[in-house]
Amino acid sequence: MSISIQGLTRRYGAFSALEGVSLDIAKGEFVALLGPSGSGKSTLLRILAGLDDPDQGSVQRDDEDLLALEAQHRRVGLVFQHYALFAHMTVSENVAFGLRVRPRRQRPSRREIATRVQELLRRVQLEDMARRYPAQLSGGQRQRVALARALAVEPSLLLLDEPFGALDAQVRVTLRGWLRELQRSLGLTTLLVTHDQEEALELADRVVVMNQGRIEQIGTPAEIYREPATPFVYGFIGRANRFDGRIESSRLWLGTHAVPGELPATWAPGAVSVWLRPEHVTLAPRSGTGWAGQVVRLVQAGSAVRASLQLQGCEGIEVEAEWSADDVERRALVSGSAVAVQLRELTLFHAGGLRHVFHPRQDDGGANGGAVDIGPWLHRRG
Ligand SMILES: Nc1ncnc2c1ncn2[C@@H]1O[C@H](COP(=O)(O)OP(=O)(O)OP(=O)(O)O)[C@@H](O)[C@H]1O
């Protein structure tokens, strides 16, 4: 079933926990809500589950007004970070709970419940643990029981609030793959709240980035990472460098350097915030090209190396780059080494929400193999 959320607002006094949130979720879609603490993610989930009411807005499930239904009639499966399993019930009793408490006329027979529970435990790969109590399970196993319990009532919407938040990193990664497969095979419309960007980008068909009760951007994981719509999204997702830049005399200035390239003709002179991913700061392939700088620090991060740099003319700012460990070794780079880098793609945000992806002009006839070399066109000011 598809879900259409329109203009949801939830206020506490003068404070808006949610402000005019609209979102359509297609049948079978997996959507992740991502945002900093306090951005309104759980508030949205709680309203959908019927645990809270909005001040304004509507939620349609297909043609049905979801908000008009009592929580127990919404057919919504809910899993929280802290597994609220019943400690005195076995795994199968926990999973059967939602079916056992149904009114007599809607309750399946004992046999049907037993079959359904068995099937669900098979799905979450816990058939062998049916008779155990929650205290006899690992954290990851408990979360799988919680999920089986949520699925028992055949929800038309699955709501997951940091379901793996309390688990260690390795278990999280394993459960992630498992959840994705389960969600796909059942075709469940799912909304996941998470702090963990990797989790959101890996699991979801679309990601909703929230900030201060509002939606900043909705997009596929690739869109959110590659085409952030706002400075907030750029800085929140992945690693990012930020400069205070200026547009002056139809040029982009970073510190005391002008960077050549096409600016939108309509952009007025003034301040721009300039954003740059570490992977877009590459080592210049030939000596005599690139933007001169100095390595401040190198940190090994798996097969990559994170380098902090200072660039000539931008001394007040440390720029973070990401290079392969092989490149760093081949060039014998250490803290203090002189380097030359190329910036490949800068995203500019101008007043009034204008955005422009800026590719510094390349002017070496392609000798750099397509790399952007801004060194020769950096103009000293004054
Ligand atoms: N009952 C309440 N009374 C007052 N303010 C509240 C209440 N419930 C939530 N809030 C506020 O609403 C805002 C949104 O809270 P919410 O729990 O939705 O955030 P969140 O994005 O889920 O955060 P987290 O990731 O930390 O769980 C927060 O600033 C929170 O303090």
Report the bound ligands by name, code or SMILES.
adenosine-5'-triphosphate
The CATH topology of the largest domain turns out to be Rossmann fold
Reported CATH architecture of the largest domain: 3-Layer(aba) Sandwich
Structural class: alpha+beta
Shape estimate: elongated
Major sheet summary line = 7 strands, antiparallel
Give average pLDDT, whole number: 88
- Estimate what percentage of residues fall within beta strands: 25-35%
- Helix content percent band: 10-25%
Strand order within the widest sheet? Answer: 21-20-14-11-12-13-22
Tally of separate domains: 2
Instruction: Find the CATH superfamily of the largest domain.
Output: P-loop containing nucleotide triphosphate hydrolases
Which regions contain 5 or more consecutive residues with pLDDT less than 50?
363-382
Give the number of helices: 9
Could you give the distance between the termini? 63 Å
| CATH top-level class of the largest domain | Alpha Beta
Number of strands: 22
Radius of gyration: 26 Å
Describe the overall structure.
The protein is α+β, with helices and mostly antiparallel strands and 382 residues long. It folds into two domains: 231 residues, P-loop containing nucleotide triphosphate hydrolases (Rossmann fold, 3-Layer(aba) Sandwich), CATH 3.40.50; 141 residues, OB fold (Dihydrolipoamide Acetyltransferase, E2P), CATH 2.40.50. The protein is 24% helix and 34% strand. The protein is built from nine helices and 22 strands. The strands form four sheets. A seven-stranded antiparallel sheet has the order 21-20-14-11-12-13-22. A hairpin with a 2-residue loop joins strand 9 and strand 10. Helix 2 crosses helix 3. The termini are far apart. Pfam families: ABC_tran, TOBE_2. GO terms for molecular function: ATP binding. Keywords: ATP-binding, Nucleotide-binding, Sulfate transport, Translocase, Transport.
